[in-house]
């Protein structure tokens, strides 16, 4: 009896202990689960159709980040060139919000055991966006927008086609505006457009401002066609040909503030005169420097002090042009010459093969006939002062005479500065420079000229002067130069 009671007591105690153990275990499990679901979603929780039971807010955010669709944008540029921008290159991503965190906050972890078999669906907003910096970097680095691709636009304009003025169409070139294109790309990406035709974006490319259908251009082309004569004058010049046609004459017309052309006689004549002045300045060689290929001193440069060369008679040519340009004819001609060179440009620089060459550095001259030296001699040139030194240049015989007296300037007392009798006098220019014999000299050549030279003429031995006198005429250039630089003294 006593043993039975003892066993019963032990059994009760064991059951009680087991009950306490189970009770404590259940409490531990409850508290652990309560703590777990304080940061994890209940089983059966679905967000935007995804099972997120047992996941943290961060894990759900990652699922939502991965749920957005892949995105790309294809851009079409000029000439059909295309570039496809990936979402990654634009910084395309989901924009986080507080909705998932709020759902977690609304979950009561103490009642976790009531949701073990429930299914709860939630919907949160998924918004995507772009990185301004990444999108800008991607757009601005596109090859189609780089400086080396730029070709400036060219406006439509009037141009001469050889017989009349026509409109040359504009060339829009290739000059994109990166800022405008970026804004268009941003708007397209923001609306998740699949493609963007950049050529259709206003201002995406800088275009030619003046188009071929411009009313003023068309009106000007019509006016020029009716006002300009069809005359074409081809000038045959020593240096080649130059054409005077409508392209030149267009500048002789009057043009008002609105760009309309008209023919005004005064403006027309002024245009002819201005063109002829430029033309003559280009063609004339008188008074200009020229080079001379000397057989004795190499290439020498002659100053423009002499009057040998080509020179257009501007007054006579102007009078002829006034009438000729109205004729409508096509013609070839030479201008009216006031002066002409003796040979072509390709013939010893217009000097030919028969000439007299005087090197004043060497104090020596050579007489050429058909390219061969037929006479040479020492000489004495002008004293090396500003007033008396012999100028360099090219001259043609003005006149020649024998047995004459050369007279200097008259001084204040009415006396000639000098009076020298010469047998052979060959004058070259209006300043009284020429060639003559100097029988009063015993020696020629050397450096006599520096301090004891002439008044500017070339002094020659009598027999040399005689031979040159018999040789020289109005077709004989006389080339005078200094082969080396010189200094003048007081």
Q: What structural class do helix, strand and pairing data support?
A: alpha+beta
Question: In this structure, how is the largest beta sheet organized?
Answer: 5 strands, mixed
The order of strands across the largest sheet is 22-21-20-28-23
> How many angstroms separate the termini?
167 Å
Helix content: 25-40%
Q: So, the CATH homologous superfamily of the domain at 353-481?
A: L,D-transpeptidase catalytic domain-like
Radius of gyration: 52 Å
Oligomer: single chain
- CATH class descriptor name of the domain at 353-481: Mainly Beta
Approximate strand percentage: 15-25%
Strand elements, count: 28
Low-pLDDT parts are none
Number of helix segments? 11
Instruction: Let me know the average pLDDT.
Output: 90
Q: Shape, please?
A: elongated
User: What name does the CATH topology of the domain at 353-481 carry?
Assistant: L,D-transpeptidase catalytic domain-like
Structural write-up:
By secondary structure, this protein is an alpha+beta fold. 28% of the residues lie in helices and 24% in strands. The chain has eleven helices and 28 strands. The strands form ten sheets. Strands 22-21-20-28-23 form a five-stranded mixed beta sheet, with helices on one face.
Summarize it.
The protein has 490 residues and is an alpha+beta fold.
Key structural traits:
24% strand, alpha+beta, 4-stranded mixed beta sheet, 490 residues, elongated, 5-stranded mixed beta sheet, L,D-transpeptidase catalytic domain-like
């Amino acid at each position: 009896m006593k043993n039975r009671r003892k066993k019963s007591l032990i059994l009760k105690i064991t059951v009680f202990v087991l009950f306490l153990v189970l009770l404590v275990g259940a409490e531990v499990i409850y508290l652990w689960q309560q703590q777990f679901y304080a940061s994890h979603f209940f089983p059966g929780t679905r967000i935007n159709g995804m099972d997120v039971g047992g996941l943290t807010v961060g894990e759900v955010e990652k699922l939502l980040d991965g749920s957005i669709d892949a995105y790309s944008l294809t851009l079409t540029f000029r000439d059909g060139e295309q570039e496809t921008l990936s979402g990654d290159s634009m910084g395309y991503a989901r924009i986080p919000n507080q909705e998932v965190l709020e759902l977690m906050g609304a979950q009561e972890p103490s009642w976790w055991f009531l949701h073990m078999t429930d299914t709860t669906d939630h919907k949160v907003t998924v918004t995507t966006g772009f990185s301004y910096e990444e999108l800008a970097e991607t757009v601005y680095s596109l090859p189609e927008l780089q400086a080396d691709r730029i070709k400036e636009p060219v406006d439509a304009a009037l141009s001469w086609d050889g017989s009349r003025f026509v409109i040359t169409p504009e060339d829009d070139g290739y000059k994109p505006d990166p800022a405008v294109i970026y804004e268009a790309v941003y708007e397209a990406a923001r609306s998740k457009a699949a493609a963007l035709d950049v050529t259709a974006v206003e201002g995406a490319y800088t275009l030619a401002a003046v188009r071929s259908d411009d009313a003023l251009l068309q009106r000007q082309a019509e006016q020029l066609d009716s006002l300009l004569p069809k005359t074409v004058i081809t000038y045959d010049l020593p240096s080649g040909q130059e054409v005077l046609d409508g392209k030149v004459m267009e500048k002789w017309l009057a043009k008002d503030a609105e760009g309309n052309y008209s023919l005004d006689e005064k403006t027309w004549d002024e245009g002819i005169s201005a063109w002829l002045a430029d033309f003559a300045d280009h063609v004339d060689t008188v008074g200009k420097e020229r080079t001379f290929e000397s057989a004795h001193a190499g290439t020498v440069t002659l100053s423009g002090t002499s009057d040998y060369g080509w020179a257009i008679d501007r007054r006579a040519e102007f009078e002829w042009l006034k009438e000729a340009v109205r004729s409508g004819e096509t013609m070839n001609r030479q201008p009216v010459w006031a002066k002409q060179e003796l040979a072509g440009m390709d013939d010893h620089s217009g000097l030919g093969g028969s000439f007299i060459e005087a090197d004043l550095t060497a104090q020596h001259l050579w007489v050429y006939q058909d390219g061969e030296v037929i006479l040479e001699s020492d000489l004495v040139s002008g004293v090396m002062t500003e007033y008396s030194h012999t100028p360099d240049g090219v001259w043609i015989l003005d006149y020649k005479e024998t047995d004459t007296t050369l007279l200097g300037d008259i001084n204040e007392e009415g006396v000639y500065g000098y009076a020298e009798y010469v047998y052979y006098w060959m004058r070259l220019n209006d300043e009284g420079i020429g060639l003559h014999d100097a029988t009063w000299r015993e020696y020629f050549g050397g450096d006599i000229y520096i301090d004891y030279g002439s008044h500017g003429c070339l002094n020659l031995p009598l027999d040399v002067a005689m031979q040159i006198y018999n040789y020289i005429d109005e077709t004989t250039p006389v080339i005078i130069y200094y082969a080396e630089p010189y200094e003048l003294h007081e």
